[in-house]
User: Fold these one by one.
Assistant:
Number 1:
Amino acid sequence: MHNHRSTTVPPTRAATGGTGPAGPCRPHDVYVLSEDESRLLDGIAVEVSTAYDTVEDPRFIADARLFAQRLPLGLRRWIEQVRLSADLGSFRIRGHRLRDADLPPTPPDFEREPARPALAPEVCLVLFGVLLGDVFGWETQQAGRLVHDIVPSEQEQKSQTSASSAVELGWHTEDAFHPYRADYLGLACVRNPDRVPTTLAELRSLELSERTRSVLSQPRFHQRPDTSHSPTGSDDVGAWSDPPLARVLSGMAGSRSLCVDADFTVVADDEDMEAEAALEELKREIESRLGDLVLEPGDYLFLDNQRCVHGRRPFRARFDGTDRWLKRVSVTRDLRRMAEAGVTATKRTARAVLAS
Ligand SMILES: [Fe+2]
């Protein structure tokens, strides 16, 4: 049997009701790979790298779920459990033994050309992701690739994008502005020598008044597009400045999903003081619950994009090939509903701006 270790961490500080500084944050469930399981992953990754040009190869994407069926049974069973969990907001797979010497230098920007042979972490990230849904990318991000590189870029040091380093990347729902944003984000850690923390707060740990939940569940807000998507190529740039009315919470008592960005969610009507107060209460509550999580090489973190917000602490980037390097993949639970964004089974890149 596998050596699955489920960490049953109580909801963050909910039990004590404390409001002190956030302690170390752990996802509420972790699967630790055995050495045998780690070797099995490497074997599948080598096979994929031999059979396909890159992880971007459409033939690999078409076959990915078939390869995923050969992942260790214990791991597949655990992923099925977390996929069906009632309120889990994040979960992590650990213990894939990566040898830093076998990995290329951290690219100075996202990799223009996908790696060949594909790196084991990116192959595994896709295989884990397809057990949760279907992977997709964006026309306006990283040249439409499905597997993104999260690396510090010298030009973007102070931006509010994942290429930043010198500033805190504020907590957010990924692509909060987009109706077809990912249901899950998967992050694979290739290297993180300075132990730069990812930040995380889960919906289920938030304590909000009933009135605040009700106001946040009404369409009284705008989700402004963040700056990680370039509107280049869009013939409807106006759509970026005129976002529709949006809710921040959905579901019964706002418990099903959360969609909010510390910097880009705003109240629609300047004079709507009640909505302003509710948004402020939510922001304060998220700040008080926000915890740090340090990803290590061989870690895979999945964020449920409806049940948690995430960000990253600031750090001093090196720009010398040894910087923090994550691989990222977006997963939808329902590929069909993304047709409106131009996504099909064989064309996995979504349009950021939808035709009106
Ligand atoms: Fe993000």
Number 2:
Amino acid sequence: MPIHETIQARKVLEHIQPYLPGKPIWEVQEELGLDQVIKVASNENPLGPSPKALEAILVSLTGINRYPDANATDLKRQIAVRSNLSPEQIIVTNGADELITLISETFLNLNDEIIVPSPSFSEYDFGAYLMGAKVVGVPFGEDYQYNVEAILSAVTQRTKIVYLCSPNNPTGTYLSKKHLHKLLDSLPKHVLVVFDGAYSHYATADDYTVGIEYVKLGYPIIVLQTFSKIYGLAGVRIGFGLASEAIVQNILKVKEPFNVNTLAQVAATAAINDDKHVEASQEANTLGRLQLYEGFSKLGLSYTESMSNFVLVRVGPKAKDVYEELLSKGIIVRYGDTWGLEEYIRISVGNPKENDTLLKAMASVLQETC
Ligand SMILES: Cc1ncc(COP(=O)(O)O)c(C=O)c1O
């Protein structure tokens, strides 16, 4: 027997599969020998990064012989001003992904439970499995709307975290302010609410909230934000959390000292103040969503109305074939099997030309396949 097979990984890892991201553009180009590839699979910003962030990165390049600021002081100050919280209520991490892992490491004991309205972002489950905790999935209601009563009924003595992803990935549906308030008031005091607002900037509903007001009111909630979506900085990996000082202090105990590199910190500090880029990205997304809705309706496809920068589309029993056919034409979308949604694909909002190309390709693929 080769020596490496005698080395046993931790038992809890039996539940974990390595994360499967959306296929990168270069891989599809290489595999299919295509020049033009459209990626609408990972909910990235089709407008590109904030130009101010790019400038900031260029200016900082010569300083990368130094370690980054372990405390992300400048960025925390900016976030504090923008959110009207204190820097001590902020933690900056290597993407929101890292923060989910850190929260899991900080709060989950063996056999604790997390509640995840499902289907949702897979990293919540990953964090729980890593710690030997259990995942209690609570299905969304009709049209993937949040079911507050069902979430509350799933709570036990062992429940440590309730995840609320709003707008939710992959459904695009959201939790109204009224329902968030109700949940926070009804949950027992040993439960931490992790409110994942990765897509908050795209939400246009009047009754949407990203939950920061509840941090201010002292509820046991941590709000997650990322620079990967609206700010267009997915490639440099940076996100942050907002919570009470006590919650943040505990999470800091498990954070690596230099988890966020210098270029990411300066880019994020510039991007958070680039209102022009944020507003342009919001407007483009709202229009792009409408373009997709109209196109899907013309194709006779049903979709879930989205408060985010992606749309979940019901394609039917041939969804996997449609996904593969689109891929062969150089269009990368996300197939829904990751979430147990075998008849669906999730499509990120691209720029107008990308949306148009996608819709035309879908029309011909649907004709050939279905
Ligand atoms: C709901 C949700 N939360 C968090 C993340 C992770 O963001 P980051 O790129 O900051 O790790 C994603 C990324 O797709 C997401 O969809």
